[in-house]
Amino acid sequence: MSERSSSLLATIRTALDASPPAVAEPGTLRLHTLFSIPRQAKSLYPLAHIHPTDLEYNKKAASVGALEEQIFVTASWAPRSAQNVEQATVDATDKQEGGETRPPKETERDTTAPLLILAMELYLYTVPELGSAVLYVSKLDSSGYGPKAIPTPLRDALSGHVFSDGSKFGNTLTATLSSAVTQHFTSFRHWDRPGQHSSSVSISHLSVHILARSQRAYLFPSSPENKDKKVLSDGGLIKWWRAVMSDVVVSTRDASSPVRKSDNSQAIDARAYYVIPGYSKMESHPLVPLIREGSSSTTAEQVLKQANWTYGYPYSSSGAGCAESDLPPLPLHWQTSSFVLSQSGKGKAEAQMDPEASDYDPKKVRTVPTLMPHFSDDPKTRFLDEMARDAHEHAGWKEKTAITSNEPVKVPGVMQEEKENGIEEQLDVSEFKSEDGNDPKQSESKKRAADD
Fold this sequence. Notes:
InterPro entries: HAT_RTT109-like, Histone_AcTrfase_Rtt109/CBP, Rtt109. The protein is of the alpha+beta class. The chain has 2 domains: 3-395, no CATH class; 400-451, no CATH class. 32% of the residues lie in helices and 16% in strands. The strands form 3 sheets. Strands 1, 2, 3, 4, 5 and 6 form a 6-stranded mixed β-sheet that branches. The protein is globular, with a radius of gyration of 30 Å.
């Protein structure tokens, strides 16, 4: 097992021990993690290095390089038979009475027939040049064969009867695993393990991106046939992810949280944003209820409030609902953000806005190509690609000079697009001018008006 896999499994085990998932039946949970070999990728910010006016600069400029790792996590569940449950109860009773303790017997189903219940696909991009990283949760799917969950109103009451050390049931198994996997990266434990490929890279900033789009199946094609699988609506999925990431955000900020206890106690600033495209903040309330102000009655509501969600996006002051100087750090701009500079005692960074300046660097300017990363199978990415193609096509129409009998006149030249459409020759504008330089059609219309 690689260092990266063992590190992630250790984080998941820590999270499960600290907050046992609320499962209503006994069984054995098996986890597998798979990391691809880090490879060079230039598709994360493919247009960040493009200068808006200097073509010679673009010929020499290098795109933003990143190390891409594909991560796959699976969970399987082996239910314990009723015979084994009864045997475990007898063993516990014998132990209390001073009798001999025997391990529970395992049936053939327990040892050879675990069922896949969850799969998660993530992409991790590390930018060594800037000391930042981007985590994209690409897919998360369940098969419906997981253990039944304890109803939320009963979890606190049952915790006192099940646990003698004061522990309490946490969230569902799927939510607990999803939170633990994400916390492994938000707590920077992935880069703290010795001996791994990126151990020499110091990462100080991480951006997590999740696209909550409801589908009947993502990774288990036949799972919709299982009547026990619950498919959430788009609004329900956004609400579910917001609750999961609230736990991630709160735990990441807390240096005493179980996942961060073994690491250094450096403060981590975590900010949470969510948005439903096409909906304003008030319009989104029927789909995903806004967080209530005031006291919270349940632990989940308290965590949701502590996460301090902002409805919007962190790319502009209008989207983040803050002043330009208070915008959150982003992967390509975190070193010059006001938050980092204020912590280090440095002055305010001046944004480069003039493309004609000698020190203009496209990668350091807050524009769409440097703010929004590109991911595979992402509608936002496809929309950005369409915008880039349209801009490129329109940029190809440049004015050229054609010589007439009188003076040079600017006319459209023959572009590559025109050649592809069968236009091979430049337009001769001399035929549209009379000998005196006037438009013949205009002169003829004036003559007819005079005759009338």
